[in-house]
Amino acid sequence: MNLIKSILLTPMWRGYIAIWLVYIVLIAVVLQTNTLLTGNFDPAMIFFAFVSIAPSAIVLTLVWPLTGWFERRGVGLGLRCAIHFTAALAFAFGAHMVLTLLQEPLERGIEWHVWPFLYNVMSYTVVAGLFHTMRATAAAQRQALAAQQARTLLVAAELGALRSKLNPHFLFNTLHSIIALTQRDPAAAETALFQFSDMLRYVLDTERAGADRVTLDAELQFSRDYLELEQLRLGSRLQVHWDLDPALGDFVLPALTLQPLIENSIKHAFNPYTRPGLLRIESRRDPQAGMLRLTVRDDGPGAAQEAIAASPGLGIRTIGRRLELDYAGRAALEIDSRPGAGFAVSVTLPCT
């Protein structure tokens, strides 16, 4: 009883039963084509169609565990075809014998024997093909889910590495600059320490709370603190131009989306050089497309696309993977750079 109940509650088997019931009704209608034209309908034909077809439908359910056995044992295509061929012949012969016992005594010629036999072979083939397709689809879904979970774990690990990567970087560069600043301007050193503390609190809060979403204003403030601390070290070499849409401050985006792009420009366009450089940070909304676009652009040496693809850098690659997972293809990360033409990274996010 529990087995029957579990079968009836399974969507696959409910669909299987429904298809066969519809098929039984259609066969009953076809068998009474002539009587229907005269208005004489014999309900007994539905019973006859049910008794003729239902046993075959029940027996064919055994193909489902057979396909499962193939899947678990990794049976090859050739052996599968051989087993199915043998099973199809056995099923067709058995179904033909059952149908013969149900039929009224008639003079049966070769046509009567051949076509029902071929019909049963075809029924087995269709059901076996359907079951194999369903198992293949389920396996593909499991693989896709496993791959998705693996990518999610990878991005989570990379994001954790990205968070922990900030601490030693600032402990050396920023604290060294603040120590030097305490002798020249104690008030400025105190302000820098508060900014540094706010940055660490931002990183620790998102990690401790598991908050992967922040407002654009919070991400921008984190980036401003970062840049002001970097300016303690770089001085006039780092010139920053903000071109922001003030209406986008409440927009929610993944934490640590903007700052790693800025850090990438600092590392490649400012640290190796003594000349001044310009860093532009822009935010724009495209109302027609319903998208937000964040761009970080520098006037550094740029890079060839081959060098960008081969770069072992963690920040930009992690952001790209997060966008792919979080927005399912609706977000994008684009890099525009050529040797001698600067480096620009744009992140496009859906507004809804």
In short:
With 352 residues, the protein is an alpha+beta fold.
Mean of residue pLDDT values: 79
The CATH architecture category of the largest domain equals 2-Layer Sandwich
Unreliable spans are 104-112
What class do helices, strands and sheet pairing give?
alpha+beta
- Please, how many domains? 2
CATH superfamily of the largest domain: Histidine kinase-like ATPase, C-terminal domain
- For the record, what CATH class of the largest domain applies? Alpha Beta
Give the topology string: H per helix, E per strand: HHHHHHHHEHEEHEEHHEE
Helical segment tally?
12
Q: Name the overall outline.
A: elongated
Q: Report the C-alpha radius of gyration, rounded.
A: 35 Å
Largest sheet strand order = 2-4-5-7-6
Descriptive tags:
352 residues; alpha+beta; Heat Shock Protein 90; 2 domains; five-stranded mixed beta sheet; 12% strand; elongated; membrane; transmembrane helix; Sig_transdc_His_kin_internal; transmembrane
